[in-house]
Amino acid sequence: MKSALILGNYRPSYILAKELKARGYRVICGMDGYERGAEVSRHVDCLWQHPALGDGIADFQQALSGFLSNHRDIELVCPVTEPVIKAFAKGDLSLPSSVTLVSISNALVQTCLDKQKMLDLATKLDIPLAPFAATHNEQDLFAKAEEIGFPLVVRPLNAQIRLDGQKAQTIESLDQLKQSWKVWTDWDSGACDLLIQAKAAGKRDNIYFAANHGQIVRYLHAKITRTDQPDGAGLAVEGKTVSPCPKLKDFTEKLVADLNYHGIGCAQYLVDEQSGDICFLELNSRIAGNHALPDHCGLDLSGSLLDLLTTDTSVKDLKQGQTDLSYGWLSGELTGLKQNYLKGLVSWRDIPAALYRAFHCFWRCDLDIAFPKQDPMPGVFTLMDSLPLIGRLTRARFRGGWQQRLFIRKEWLS
After folding, report:
1. Considering only CA atoms, which of 377, 358, 103 is closest in space to residue 237?
2. Is the C-alpha dihedral spanning 406, 410, 411, 414 positive or negative?
3. How confident is the model over 179-198, as a mean pLDDT?
4. Handedness of CA 15, 19, 22, 25 (dihedral sign)
């Protein structure tokens, strides 16, 4: 039987696994990843315990080469998490010629990961965005921050670096920036390479799409109404799908056409509903974390990805996803609440109301993105992982030995 290997045990992994399984592949998934859950998916046949990419690319490449050599039935390798996609795009990871990499082109991935280059492109295409500047040293950072003005959003130019565990941080004043800088300078190389941008008003809008050589063929517009962070940054935990906004559709079509984009992606904007102001944020050239949403809305981005990148199947006719659908992410919200409490961002007094909002959203929404259709076990386990005490028990399945076999009844490959 032909096989496909998914690299990255992550929320979208078991959505992609469903499509691969439907196409007749035996689905193998690596165990390393983010929230995980694919290890208990009904669509995943086998599991591979491998070195974590973060522990060293050379060790990961050696393990991957050996694994593919031992399992010559593997025809496709599907990277899901951003670090793995970036490693392939930079040439740090490679595959034998007999195996197809299911990913956007290397040049396109690197362009989209370059935040400054994408903001420059948006400027060229007359797509609205907040004032920004790249900084590379302490003096430059403080000078440009005062020039742009506060509040502002700070994020690393290197997409893999985090600011105290977050992709971006909102800074309200120069004093706060100086205090935060003392923490940021504890990083390794690249600590000074930051992108600062005036904070735009509004909430995030996501545009999920598939494009055939610069022409959009699949399209879904989703509004994020709540995230796992008090300031509105972070990961989406509640939202809804809406009718396409003509302006956002036009901006996304401009970006896709200019990049000659081929594959699937997610463009993000901030939209102020009161003023109507729009601010371009970024374009992610990969499977989005909330990949279950376009799948549930009938967009079939997994199938589009495979058709566009691995087959001669033509994907040309425009198809738009279902609108007026509400979604949430209970396990992500509970995990975020726990982390925010430990960081002192929320107090114990805030917890009852936050728990009520989380469970109220779970019961009334049309879709929880961790609970895909006919495959509930990933959602069940990731939900238990987010709970005190119970999570300590269920997370034992990642420790190896008898703990793994207790929870995971799958074939293990080596």
Report:
1. 358
2. negative
3. 71
4. negative
Q: Report the candidate in 267, 246, 243 with the shortest Cα–Cα distance to residue 255.
A: 267
E strand or H helix that includes residue 309 = helix 301-310
Band (pLDDT 50/70/90 cuts) for residue 185 is low
The pTM of the full predicted model, rounded to 2 decimals, is: 0.92
Q: Which domains are seen in the chain, by residue range? A: 3-103 (3.40.50.720), 106-129+201-375 (3.30.470.20), 130-198 (3.30.1490.20)
- The terminus-to-terminus CA distance of the chain in angstroms comes to 18
| Amino acid at residue number 256 | V
**In this structure, what token pair is assigned to residue 3?**
């096989």
Tokens representing 308 are 């566009």
**DSSP assignment letter at 23:** T
Which stretches of 49-148 are assigned E, i.e. beta strand?
74-79, 100-101, 132-135
| C-alpha triplet 174, 180, 182: angle, nearest 5° | 110
Which residues, other chains included, contact 61 with Cβ-Cβ below 8 Å and sequence gap of 6+?
A: 92, 93, 94
pLDDT band at 192 (very low <50, low <70, confident <90, very high): low
Q: How far is CA 147 from the centre of its chain?
A: 32
* 366, 325 contact by CB (below 8 A): yes
> Quick one: tokens of 156?
């690393």
Dist. CA 301–CA 63, nearest whole Å: 30
Exposure letters 349-369 (e unless 16+ CB within 10 A, then b): eeeeebeebbeebbeebebbb
Lowest mean pLDDT among 80-84, 293-297, 394-398: 394-398
**With bands split at pLDDT 50, 70 and 90, how would you rate the model's confidence at 380?**
very high
Q: Are 220 and 320 in contact (CB under 8 A)?
A: yes
Residue pair 341/351 in contact (Cβ under 8 Å)? The answer is: yes
Does 194 score more than 90 pLDDT? no
What's the CA dihedral at 268, 270, 273, 274 to 10 degrees? -160
> Is the dihedral angle over the CA atoms 7, 11, 15, 17 positive or is it negative?
positive
Per-residue pLDDT, averaged over 56-64, amounts to 95
